[in-house]
């Protein structure tokens, strides 16, 4: 893949902290829900935006995507030139690294942009413009395809708790909460990993606060199922939650410690 003409990257340098396997929950979800789009694409390119000081997340993304889309290719994009140089030895068939930022310095329109822990340092007011810019770079919808996917979110240092927003060329679609169930005391523990667009909205009167309140109440009501294990309690909780909230996935994903909700139900009030 040929990079665009050199220009000053758009964005700020991140802390760069990363750990192997940190983004496994996000990657597995992407493979499950977007794998078919990647397989059908003539040019199944994925961008790991802001992969950090080490290229582990890009290497792992390639491996996971190729289990569902063997022709997938990954381009790691970093705004810090030294990080790009350090990643060079990890290049291989289907994996390259580029210097850049939110402009996404590749030719063509990617089928996937993954931006994990990138917007954490930005202001809430900056998020909409970044989303709009990145969504404009996605492969467009057409025919049977919904187009490319932007997945933007935040997780803890070892990937036990993760919340992300999925966006298409048209804008936000869903919010996914994912966790290692054995580490969870109550669902609202995930609040500290809300993406920047939502984390400051976890206050009374905002939809995401109400959702997490209802999630905790459903979790408490499902306490008798804990004797069958945390997974069964989670499944029962999400099934109850779906009576009042637009949960978009099924028990197949709930078993993984996930739940996905339509963006419109959690979107901030203006």
Keywords:
disordered N terminus; 9 helices; globular; 270 residues; eight-stranded mixed sheet; alpha/beta
Describe it:
It is a single chain. By secondary structure, the protein is of the alpha/beta class. It has helices at residues 24-40, 56-66, 81-87, 124-137, 196-199, 207-221, 230-241, 251-254, 263-266; strands spanning 45-49, 73-78, 95-99, 112-116, 149-155, 161-168, 171-179, 258-262. The chain has an 8-stranded mixed sheet with strand order 3-2-1-4-5-6-7-8. Strand 2, helix 3 (81-87) and strand 3 (95-99) form a beta-alpha-beta unit. Helix 1 (24-40) packs across helix 2 (56-66) and helix 6 crosses helix 7 (230-241). The longest helix has 17 residues, at 24-40. 43% of the residues are buried. Mean pLDDT is 94; it is low at 1-6.
Structural class: alpha/beta
- Sequence stretches where pLDDT stays below 50 over 5 or more residues: 1-6
Write out the strand line-up for the largest beta sheet, numbering strands in chain order.
Answer: 3-2-1-4-5-6-7-8
Give the number of helices: 9
Shape: globular
What percentage of residues falls in helices of 4 or more residues?
Answer: 25-40%
Compressed to H and E, one letter per element, the order equals HEHEHEEHEEEHHHHEH
Q: Strand-residue fraction?
A: 15-25%
**For the report, how would you describe the main beta sheet?**
8 strands, mixed
Backbone CA Rg: 18 Å
Whole-number mean pLDDT? 94
End-to-end Cα distance: 41 Å
User: How many E-type strands?
Assistant: 8
Summarize the structure in short.
With 270 residues, the protein is an alpha/beta fold. Helix content is 33%, strand content 19%.
